[in-house]
What does this fold into?
Amino acid sequence: MKMENKLSVGVDIVSIKRIRDIITSSKRDRFLSKIFSSSEIKDALSKNDEAQFFAGRFAAKEAVKKASSTKSLISSNNFKSIEIFNYESGKPGVKAPNCQNIELSISHDGNYAIAFCIRS
Ligand SMILES: CC(C)(COP(=O)(O)OP(=O)(O)OC[C@H]1O[C@@H](n2cnc3c(N)ncnc32)[C@H](O)[C@@H]1OP(=O)(O)O)[C@@H](O)C(=O)NCCC(=O)NCCS
It folds into this structure.
């Protein structure tokens, strides 16, 4: 079907253990530098649980991609071009090419991190 809605949504859930296994292995540096910007890697330093933090960021990037897929603005495997940051309040925001009007929410509990994105 060709019809496109004005609003797009994206959601993703990530296993924190899956991320913990990678970042405590020899694949750590390659994984982090492929997926996360230097600011995101720096932000992780202030977090109690970096696996939880990176799982939330990973879910957020996937959610942004899903919300953007119909608009073809973000290439399918360029995670680094989607940067997640926090405003002073703690609320998460997104910097990505040609991406305005994006709202994002991230949550973590137990073994999972989840992110939801809405884009107009
Ligand atoms: C913000 C708050 C609701 C987070 O809830 P939580 O159950 O502790 O933690 P969750 O795992 O569900 O959520 C954490 C994520 O919430 C998001 N978050 C933090 N502050 C936020 C805010 N002010 N508005 C929206 N989202 C926020 C962040 O993305 C954070 O993850 P990150 O730091 O890795 O980016 C909680 O810390 C809180 O109640 N803070 C005090 C009141 C407050 O600031 N309320 C915000 C609206 S006024």
Notes: Residues 53, 56, 86, 89-92, 105-108 surround coenzyme A (CB under 6 Å). The first strand starts at residue 8 and ends at 15.
